Amino acid sequence: MSERIGIEVSLAVAEAAKMAKVDVVAAYPITPQTHIVEGLAELIAEGHLDAEYVCVESEHSAMSACLGSAAVGARTFTATAGQGLELMHEVVYVAASMRLPIVMVVANRALSSPLSVWGDHSDVMAVRDTGWIQVFAESGQDAFDLTIWAFRVAEDKRVLFPVMVNLDGFHLTHVVEPIEMPSQEEVDRFLPPNDYPQSLDPAKPITMGSFAVPQFFTEIKKAQEVDFEKTRPIIRETWDEFAKVFGRKYQAVEKYKTDGAETLLLTMGSFSQTASLAIDELRKNGEKVGQIRLRLWRPFPFEELKEAVRGAKRLIILDRAISYGGPGGPVASEVKSALYDVDNAPKIASFIAGLGGRDVLPEHFIDMINRGVELADKGQEGPYEMLGVRE
Amino acid sequence: MAKRDTWKDVEKGATIKRPGSAREYKTGDWRSQRPVYDQDRCIKCGVCYLYCPDAAIKIRPDGFIEIDEYYCKGCGICARECITGAFKMVPEGREEAKKK
Questions:
Q1: Distance, first Cα to last Cα, chain A
Q2: Per the CB < 8 Å rule, is B10 touching A223?
Q3: Which residue of chain A comes nearest to B10, CA vs CA?
Q4: Quick one: pLDDT at residue B95?
Q5: ipTM
Q6: CA A10 to CA A119: how far, in whole Å?
Q7: Number of folded domains in chain A?
Q8: In whole numbers, what is the pLDDT of chain B averaged over residues?
Q9: Angle CA(A187)–CA(A142)–CA(A5) in degrees, nearest 5?
Q10: Which class is domain B39-100?
Q11: Of A215, A220, A226, which is closest to B14 when you measure between CB atoms?
Q12: Which segments in chain A show pLDDT lower than 70?
């Protein structure tokens, strides 16, 4: 039986990794991820979790250690944030290309300079194309659930790709939330032991991560992309399985009060909860607004998104990262390209806000929606507008 | 993955299931110049054998050497290190190189 307890979200994530019975944790502490790995270090030191905690000297080494550990078939977990994710950058690609089912929780943080330990989505946007399955948590419960789920989908023999679970630094990592903790029996029912099919074994030597000359490289990349595309139905299937065991259902694109909505607000991560308060308020006033939340970021849910915006006149998008000199924030530019060939696609207004830990409150979302309606109707000049900046 | 296999033949993660296949890779294809060995100058000291980064120089039973052109990348280290100047680097495809 599950139990509802109040717990800091970071510690709940550590608990999720414990309940997933990870074999190896290789991580380097960095704000705002620190409590997750501290929590795990304590669980291992106290004997609550039978796992190896590898104290590495950097994030580059953390992910490198994870490669080795996953390659021998050990269930492997790490967590990082901001600068740490960038320091491990090259190895993040390797994990996906070598098909190692590592689970990494990223406590999203802004990137220097100026130095900021606070949250935005710049860090994860820089690893967007690394070939990991990437999801965003909206609440502490999401963060806990998605961490457990991540092992299941990563280790599925039809998948074998690493999974990144994103949760907003401080806005999620450092808050105490009520979380339904499942029983170990339930977790075990959902998550079978890891059975990595091509693990390193002295009795049956294989080469992993070799080099490839131009005659082979293109074929190898095509094979990787085709397999990555095939993860879409398995992501759905494992979320259905999750719902059967735990009673909570996750979807690639989630809708909130979208019935009859002419204007939709699209958000990703913990700000989605705050934004929903603005939606409630506007709905109360009889305005036809709704919200869609992007849960799955890679592989990008093209079909689900198209379905979710069907019939809407306007789509207002919040980004928490800048693509300098680019076509707007990363989410807006992805959404625009996803809807390019859709007839009667909604008019889009793109906003950037919530950088480096700046709060975006319900009243700010109301402003964003009002301004967005105006911009979408007359056509937005320039790729985006920055909201809440002192002029 | 054999030389002309398609992307459908790629193992997950491009894992190579057959050990030792790297030896089939003909690094000699990289060569733009070739060492031409002059046995008359060779004093059988073995310096070239020690320096060759690809173990592409073999010592024959009579003490003289032999270049394994399947692996020799033509780096020229043997010519640079040889005490008596027994190697001459010659551009690939030229007559002197072919003669050898």
A1: 54
A2: yes
A3: A220
A4: 61
A5: 0.85
A6: 14
A7: 2
A8: 91
A9: 70
A10: alpha beta
A11: A220
A12: none
Which of A246, A266, A298 is the endpoint of a domain? A246
Structure tokens at A156: 């599925």
Which pLDDT score, from 0 to 100, does residue A208 have?
A: 93
Using the beta-carbon criterion (under 8 Å), do A210 and B16 form an inter-chain contact?
A: yes
User: What pLDDT, on the 0 to 100 scale, is given for residue B15?
Assistant: 94
Residues of A in contact with B12 (CB under 8 A): 99, 160, 198, 227
Write down which residue in A190, A218, A246 finishes a domain: A246
Secondary structure of residue A108 in the 3-state scheme: strand
Per domain, the residue ranges of chain B are 39-100
In a domain, A320, yes or no: yes
Q: What is the pLDDT of residue B1?
A: 45
Distance of residue A222 Cα from the nearest chain B Cα, in angstroms: 6
pLDDT score at B96? 59
Report the residue of B9, B11, B27, B30 to disrupt the A interface, i.e. the one with the largest count of A CBs within 10 Å.
B11
The whole-model pTM stands at 0.93
**pLDDT number for residue A158:** 98
Contact A94, A209 (CB under 8 A): yes
- Is any Cβ of chain A less than 8 angstroms from the Cβ of B14? yes
- Decide: residue A104, CB within 10 A, 0-12 exposed, 13-18 middle, 19+ buried: buried
First to last CA, chain B: 34
